[in-house]
């Protein structure tokens, strides 16, 4: 029983640490920042680009930032569970 409580505490601590993590991607003057809870924290646009170019780059930046933060989360989880990546 105490082992389960310990694991729950470790998972809560991990969740708190992930909130502090951030993945930032910048391309062509467009910047996207995603936190460890997979929430978009910041988007900066480049007004010199066309609407279509901005849409394309935002999508690329978001996808890349999400992948980066997923890797960070997986590495942190592996530290708790003991499974290496």
Number of helices: 2
**Gyration radius over CA:** 17 Å
CATH class: Alpha Beta
What is the averaged pLDDT score?
Answer: 88
Physical arrangement of strands within the biggest beta sheet:
1-2-3
Total beta strands:
3
In one word, what is the shape? elongated
Percent strand equals 15-25%
Task: Give the oligomer, counting copies of the same chain as homo and different chains as hetero.
Answer: single chain
Keywords summarizing the entry:
alpha+beta; single chain; 3 strands; 20% strand; three-stranded antiparallel sheet; Ybab, Chain: A; 85 residues
Describe this structure in words.
The protein is α+β, with helices and mostly antiparallel strands. It has a single domain (2-81), classed as 2-Layer Sandwich (Ybab, Chain: A). Helix content is 59%, strand content 20%. The protein has two helices and three strands. It has helices at residues 2-20, 51-81, and strands spanning 22-27, 30-35, 40-44. α1 runs antiparallel to α2. The longest helix is centred in the C-terminal third of the chain and has 31 residues, at 51-81. The relative contact order is 0.18.
């Amino acid at each position: 029983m105490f082992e389960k409580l310990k694991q729950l505490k470790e998972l809560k601590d991990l969740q708190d640490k992930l909130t502090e993590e951030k993945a930032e991607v910048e391309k062509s003057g467009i910047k996207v920042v995603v936190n460890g809870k997979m929430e978009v924290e910041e988007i900066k646009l480049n007004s010199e680009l066309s609407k279509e170019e901005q849409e394309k780059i935002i999508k690329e930046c978001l996808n890349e930032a999400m992948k980066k933060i997923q890797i960070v989360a997986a590495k942190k989880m592996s530290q708790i569970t003991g499974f290496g990546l």
